[in-house]
Protein 1
Amino acid sequence: MKILIVGNGGREHALADALARENTHVELIAAPGNPGIAQLARIEDVAASASDALVELALREQVNLVVVGPEAPLADGLVDRLRLRNVPAFGPTAEAAEIETSKHVAKQLMARAGVPTANAETHRTAAGAHEAVRERFGAPVVIKASGLAAGKGVIVCHTEVEAHAAIDRIMGDKAFGEAGNECLVEAFMTGEELSLFAITDGTDVLTMLPAQDHKRLLNGDDGPNTGGMGAYTPVSLGTPVLLDDVTERILLPALHALRKRGTPFTGLLYAGLMLTEEGPKVVEFNCRFGDPETQAILPMLTSSLLEPMLAVAGGARINNMSPLTWRTGASVTTVVAAPNYPDTPRTGDVLRLPDDTDTRRVFHAGTKRAANGELVSSGGRVVAITGLGESFDEARRISREGAEQVELADKQLRTDIGWREHERLS
Ligand code: GLY
């Protein structure tokens, strides 16, 4: 079984790690991969954005499956191109991926399907967005670039002054480029966030363990927003009753709306939820595995990831498949980031990493080999250290100690990943 994994982050390393643990013999190829993935896969120097070259690679290697990690190649139609050449690919088509790549489309779909989410307006002019804040929303309020903005296009504003400045940044300065051609003004929601991933054939779902991401840079959920500084799973708030409710009132109706729109979604649907006093509401949908939640979730998986992926990529239904199974205990992931992340991370620093153990996984994200063979940092989020434990506190300790052992000059990390769960459990 030959599998091509597209991407080069911690998420793709975790996907490679899970697929390498399958009972079936799996030969992994990664494009472009990273030095961590290189321990599990043959690396091909093809960028995730080079769709035509990736299709050629998949055809030349006669792969049985392509797993697309990041959202950008999905938005770019990589899965559409692979399907045209009869290559089984796990991930949505570009049109289905609009559930992530256009927040406006996502809101329309949710409205049609009756999926609970915050009230929002889409504006194509800054004047319209300013008026919405002034006349109807006030503060606190959330201002969002509608398009893809590498996780940075959502600005939570505590005052109207901040909201007007956010609109000017997105629509006037074009801080996120064309992603800011449309701007959403959205009611602020309060509660805890929860990430729920589901493998889907377009109709039915196989849900994964619920996880919680930590988007702020600093302990205590302080500092600027990042791509995610850590995650843990399971989350005790994500009870079976709550997850069934999310499946019935959010995941299945959203998939139904996508089918009705003529753009059925297959692959991994990620529901970013807010657990409000009125019940779970959607903050956003993503069209791919989340990062760093995947690095926490997949090491807990004891059943096959490959079987449902192959079924979905081959156009088969998953309604007769058994639910995914998980090890007991907990998993906590701590991200180690470069100095000056998230603004302009310093790269090129020498890096020394602890080894994997039975209870610790070291996932590479922003790493590369320098010309002299040394491992150096090459991105903002450099590595993610996952600790597995029989208890939440044990997993947390293993993750934190592993992250502290990472040798990287002026590294940044949070030492409080899972603090809410810790408080709940103590
Ligand atoms: N963890 C946030 C994301 O993957 O978008």
Protein 2
Amino acid sequence: MNLILLGPPGAGKGTQAVKIVEKYHIPHISTGDIFRANIKNGTELGKKAKEYMDKGELVPDDLVCEIATTRLLEDDCTDGFLLDGFPRTVYQAEKLDEFLEKHGKKVDKVLDIAVEKEELMQRLINRRVCKACGATYNVKNMPPAKEGVCDKCGGELMQRADDTKETVENRIEVYNSQTMPLVEYYEKAGNIAHIDGAIGLENVFNHIVSVLGE
Ligand code: AMP
């Protein structure tokens, strides 16, 4: 099962990804996570990506495509994968299709999660992430039991550098102008499912399962 999670920042892609990979046993590939790991480890790739990420802009296509396709060649992707945050431009989608075709594969389903801008802003600005295990919280409507501390592992909670109000606005704009055209791209391919991302995470997941099958 080769899947893509599409949707604006804050739509809940990361949260749903955790549940999808658990149920369907496929690897979760988040280009954003790969970049953040590189930034943490101080690699050259991390330094390059950070320049763009801090402003809420997209990392250049060729760099992202190289990272994503290299990851897709790893053994754990043989029987399927869940792409989260890639592709983000029509160019990336075309490159992905070329790559998959070359390897006798295709995209099976694109899950397009939609949420209104106001709700996205609230979710992102109030989001906190555990430095140790990556669990996410919302200081307004899903706070941890103890401020700044992860309920799951006791790790320290932090705010992502690109979750500030200004950067979030830019990320949503970038999504609308550069990533939204992908909806039409996959509409034409006939493999997109539209999911309302504002109905609560369990309901969103149930909808996804009804699309993918048990
Ligand atoms: P995410 O964690 O998916 O929200 O990604 C965080 C940031 O990483 C984005 O705002 C971009 O700067 C960069 N990024 C992640 N995936 C891509 C991609 N497919 N194309 C370009 N930039 C990306």
